Amino acid sequence: MTGTEIFEVSSEQQQDLIQWLAPYIPTCIALYRRIQFGHFEPGARILSSIDFARSPHERKAKDSWIIAYVDRACRPETEVWLAASWEHDTPTDDSKTPCADDLVKAMIKKISQFETPPKASTIVDPEGATDQSSATNGSVLVDRDQFLSHMQNENIVLFGSVHRATFTILKRLGFVDPDSAEVSGIPYRKYIFDITNGMVSRELPSGFEYGKVDPKNYSLVKSRTQIPRQDRTLCKLPSVAIYPAKNPSTTREPVAWGFLGLDASLTTLHVEPAYRGLGLAKSLSLRLFSEDMDIYCQHNPTPTGENNYIQERYAHADVATDNTASQGVCESLGGKWHFEVFWIRVDLLA
């Protein structure tokens, strides 16, 4: 049976980790991209049941494994991304369940040993959020009570983009916080995009122009979504905004915007109601995929040549199953729905 020891992956071992995960694309794309992106806080850790201190021929690819990126300083945003072998191979194979259960338990135990950093001075309160329908992903939609409960209990951790196979294990083992069971049960469709096929930025309708999201407009962005966001996170993310053509007599505010998340997912995509139906959401998405995806590759370059991996071709988005508008945008971009994921609050002491 596979051992259940969990190891910390050093910065020197991250390239080996990236190469290990590459063949499991697109299933592990959220974790893969999060590690590629970098921008790690001092307390962030990468944990693995694979000991990357061992030589490559000593690592057994046939064994089950689990890998996680953990950053408790991100509270109340996503603190953990993870991927596991049973998600990619045969998630319905009951013969792997005992091993998977042991690995999940070991990972939770390891995460529980990390202290929560001091609370950030700037925390997003979602009380004023107004629009759920335009958000494509990035975190579970929350209400005020759940948000405050999360922040007050250091043993509650937000796991993001959890594959249904692992969500089922976490829920069966009792790790899913029962106080957020209703939210935790909301599935998101994982759309995968092949960005080598026609992902080219396009011209906007007359009277509009592209730009970046100005930090002075972060409050506007946050008011249009119930996804918890902190300014310190938004300023790291690649963004595209659409503005009315320059007019010095008016204060410029964007009429549409979108970001690529910490895991390179299409996130916080929004078009103001008066400007919908003009194809602006698709234009934003194309611009982000064609202009900004390379930032996720620069920290962890992959091998080139005949054996070059194909994983850099892919982008992704998570869309709520009842968000037909965003599903339509993804499908118009050639996105394919591969599997379902969840944002869940995990009780480390369950």
Automatic annotation (TrEMBL):
<dbReference type="InterPro" id="IPR053225">
    <property type="entry name" value="Acyl-CoA_N-acyltransferase"/>
</dbReference>
<protein>
    <recommendedName>
        <fullName>FR47-like domain-containing protein</fullName>
    </recommendedName>
</protein>
<dbReference type="InterPro" id="IPR016181">
    <property type="entry name" value="Acyl_CoA_acyltransferase"/>
</dbReference>
